Amino acid sequence: MRGFFALVLLPFFGNAQSIKTFVKTNSFPVLSIDPQNENYTDLEAFGKSVGDATVVMLGEQSHGDATTFEAKTRLIKYLHEQKGFNVLAFEGDFFALNHGWDSVPKTKAATDTFLRNNIYGLWTHCHTAQHLFYEYIPATFGTNSPLVVTGFDNQLTMPWSRAYAVRYIDSLAHDLCIPFIDHPSYAHAIDCIKGMVDMQIHQDSALYTKARAYLQQFKQELADTLSHAEFPMMVIDNLIAFAKQMQYDDNRAQEHVSHNVRDEQMARNLKWLYEYRYTGQKIIVWAANLHISKFFKPPVQTMGGYLALDSAFIKKVYVLGFTSQKGVSGLVKLRREKIEKPKKQSLENWIPINFSYAFIDFKPYNACSSNSKEPFAMRYIGHLMYAKDHWNTFFDGMFFIREMHPCEKAE
Question: Are 268 and 237 in contact, with CB atoms under 8 Å apart?
Fold first, then answer.
């Protein structure tokens, strides 16, 4: 992973206000990350920076950052209660978290089971995310502003998708009487696509190629009746992208292709959610730093980078990365990773020492033409300390955590 995510050391540009000075003097203390703390005065700087944005992306360095999940939960509550955000979009199964979420009764018992099964367990089983999934979200159902859950990942492999996604396409094909249903290869096409969703054809490139071809046939024939923006067409587009992604998944020389295919489709999914499914509503995005960053340096591209190509859309978005100085990270029931000491001249060492948590908004720095805009070192993916780059252009702001703690299995 270090290989194709390696970043270029850029030259230093002197004079004016340095990024180090800016961070030191413009880090706002966040007094608490406890989701039960509903005195949000310490988040006012964050709220002002979000401003009129209608999409706020919340990142994480790795999927085993329990402290980050706790902080994100409090930010979500703040955005929902104080800023009018009512859609929570996860880096999760597009079909399950749209078709499935619509289908499940909005009772605590039903949604508890659904979320536990259909959002990745690295979040739903982590002890610090329990309040969000099993207390806060269901508690909103009885209010005038329920928090809606959705997803934008093209990897349609969760239980709801395994049970219903292929059946959904098959039923649609029969309801619309497309010619393909009478073709001798139709039954094999259904089996092939189902095998992919069930992950039964992992490492079989030939079958992924066949699955893509069959899905292209579905798409072509359904296009005579459905527009490209209708949900069934989006489901097929996601499966096509998933088949292509899996073809390259185990090829280290082409690893970036698999990553890029996924991130491009996730960008399309998020825009579709914003423009069609939740028109006029405000969306909170929960995903990794890597995916939300406005990083676009071939051969590696990101969801945020694809979104940034649309200048009108990205103006509506606030991208908040997360970083930490020290501690331990670790996914539920997996190996713990001690966080390496940051470089002396890095953002993590510029935060005032008495701040346990802090928020930095890069937008004022970026807007001031007299600033030097020099590169700097910062953590980005998986707690690695990356070389100097213009991280202030990858993210609109950063949330700093002094000491990270790993996920424990929730009781």
Answer: yes
- What are the Cα distances from residue 297, in Å, to 294, 350, 411? 10, 27, 42
From the CB of residue 170, how many other CB atoms can be counted at a distance below 10 Å? 18
**Tokens (6 digits) for 255:** 């690893």
Block mean pLDDT (10 aa), the chain, length 411? 35 63 97 98 98 98 97 98 98 98 97 98 97 98 96 97 98 97 96 90 80 96 95 98 86 79 98 98 98 88 96 97 97 92 93 97 94 90 89 97 97 80
CA–CA distance, 195 with 93 (Å, rounded to integer): 17
pLDDT at 13: 37
CA 60/CA 69 separation, integer angstroms = 8
Name the CA radius of gyration of the chain, rounded: 22
| pTM confidence score | 0.94
Contact 221, 179 (CB under 8 A): yes
Distance (Å, whole) CA 294 – CA 62: 17
CA distances from 164 to 69, 152, 161 (A): 30, 17, 5
Q: How much is the pLDDT for 250? A: 63
Helices then strands, each counted (H, E), the chain: 18, 13
Torsion of CA 263, 74, 396, 352, to 10 degrees: -130
Going by their DSSP bridges, the two strands 148-153 and 27-29 should be labelled as: unpaired
Query: Which secondary structure element, helix H or strand E, spans residue 318, and what is its range?
Result: strand 317-329
Is 340 in contact with 385 (CB distance < 8 Å)?
yes
d(CA 209, CA 97): 26
Q: What is the model's pLDDT at position 371? A: 85
- State residue 251's pLDDT score: 66
| Dihedral sign computed on CA atoms, order 242, 248, 250, 253 | negative
Question: If you ran DSSP here, which 8-state letter would residue 119 be given?
Answer: S
Helix ranges (H only) for 178-284 are: 186-197, 205-222, 231-248, 255-272
